[in-house]
Amino acid sequence: MNDPLRVAVLGSTGSIGRQALDVIARSGGRFEAVALAGGENASLLAEQVAAFRPRYVSSVVQTEGLSEAVEAAGAEVVEPEAIAIAPDIDVVLVSTAGAAGLHPTLAALRAGKPVAIANKEVLVMAGHLVRQAMSEGGGELRPVDSEHSAIWQCLWGESHARIRRIILTASGGAFRDYSLEQLATVTPEQALDHPTWKMGRKITVDSATLMNKGMETIEAMWLFDVPMTAVDVVLHRESIVHSLVEFSDGSVKAQLGVPDMRLPIQLALSFPERAPEPPMPLLDLATVGALHFGKPDVERFPCLRIAMDAGRIGGTAPAVMAAADEVAVERFLRHELRFVDIPRVIESVLERHSPIANPTLEEVLGADAEARRLAAAIAPGVAA
Amino acid sequence: MNDPLRVAVLGSTGSIGRQALDVIARSGGRFEAVALAGGENASLLAEQVAAFRPRYVSSVVQTEGLSEAVEAAGAEVVEPEAIAIAPDIDVVLVSTAGAAGLHPTLAALRAGKPVAIANKEVLVMAGHLVRQAMSEGGGELRPVDSEHSAIWQCLWGESHARIRRIILTASGGAFRDYSLEQLATVTPEQALDHPTWKMGRKITVDSATLMNKGMETIEAMWLFDVPMTAVDVVLHRESIVHSLVEFSDGSVKAQLGVPDMRLPIQLALSFPERAPEPPMPLLDLATVGALHFGKPDVERFPCLRIAMDAGRIGGTAPAVMAAADEVAVERFLRHELRFVDIPRVIESVLERHSPIANPTLEEVLGADAEARRLAAAIAPGVAA
Fold it and tell me: Are residues A306 and A318 in the same domain?
């Protein structure tokens, strides 16, 4: 038996982080959680520290319970950036949401480490800086999104020059069958009732607006080094086909499976090997019966078009879009905006922004902050 | 520009052979038809010789027109086995039907050449001898069937040890929705009306009985070096998903495309590169709309079970099955047998045969001849 692979889980108390710890716990000693970085939920982090006894712990909040767990485990309290570059870490899972994932991701890649990336904003905000860090330090990105993991798998053994088109599948979100009139009156409670994937509140609303899919098109550009013209989206309500790649000769490859994030998480850790056992039930296509596909409707779901346009423009545009979206979604969840106001607020903010090409990290974060201020200030009536 | 790849097309006048010449003609000089071996249709072979001006020609019949074409092209008339080992041939496409493909395939593999194999019987009759020839001579097999090409593509960049299951898709043939009672009265004319693929008469009937799919399970065993327990069949009426592979971790990969044999033919020639352009229209999943899957019904289509059992038994059993099937299908096409008698005749012949393990080529051909005699002699009433 090989030594266990030493994994750092940044964002261990979030949805992906918890599923990653489940994969690690069930790995039969193949993976070891050597570092945990948690969010606001200090009591869950304390439980995780007690269960996994990591060497390194990072937390945004300090509680007595957490301090006791850290001491009992003999762990060292450090910053996420220190975890990302620790020599006794083999792979860094970045599953912290938002801009918090940026610094550890860049640090790990510059240190030549593989980064299993479950954070959308890192690539959307600063994809060019991520690729720069990869080429400087020799680190590699392994996608954890089910869609990008599918594309990654379809590309194994293939030549990059022969990619014709990357086709992301989209479940269509909670409101895929709603008319524009119906969309005008949907509530946050309806939006949070996603049919297939169990996810956080922000990403569930982003799934319903198709902004999540739009951000995935930008991620795909950076992960697979293709222009936006080579990225496409197809609706697929069953979420069984996780994405597809069309090659130069017209051949299409797809990756399929029961929707379960533990597969892409496990694969991002075990790569270049596949694990010997599935972390989820096996797919039975005959029982599934039918898979449906359709064109996404950017009339009803303009966020997809907005994101793909921002990806084409590049520079600070995607960061501004993502920041405006985050604020708009928060305001929707607080009943301050209607569902259909979300794209309007984002477009208003983008119209007020002059994109900076090839921005530094400071410029990205500056644009992000400016976009948040603007998005918070726009009144729903003004946005249209 | 590289030198053109020098291709031998054995079976150039058949369905696959003609499509291969179409691929070669449209390749912009990437492929060159250096050798042609034709069947009974000497006038078509003469046309092909005039159009492609090969160095080598082989024909089972001689006509004045063909001789003139050969002379005009300055070609040499040789046996298929000589073509298979000629040093100025880079890849041998074996698209001759039946046992005629055996000797050239074995010869080419022993000579270390890549063989693009479109002949079912070679692997069904003598899969163990083919693998032996590969390991002796270093030749490689490249599948030309759409199903096996799909599996092959799904396995690129993957580890053989991580294959859990190979899943062949089956359109279900012309009678997939017929009851047992309806199957008892179907005519050869109905059987030959296949919904999706344009193929020869024998293979179209084999598609309708699912014997074709059964043979493909045996081919898959030999092509991908897996036991029959790792081979499965799923019904898929649209013939868009050409086959799938399930890996150890539960991940499933599939290859999709518009049904067109020119893709697998082109890929078997261009490997390890993909050609820069598609030989067929591109797939548009949103327009296709839905893909359906189901379990094959071995009550109504027992040939699938018979073939998978013969594959498990091995030795001469698959050769005997294939020979009995060929005779039974011929008798069905001559209205001597009912459609439902085809599996009965095959089972009767298999029951009368004592399989020889690890047979020599002579033993395989002997079993084949015996099976043909038996299958020709069984009266429809006796078969039940």
Answer: no
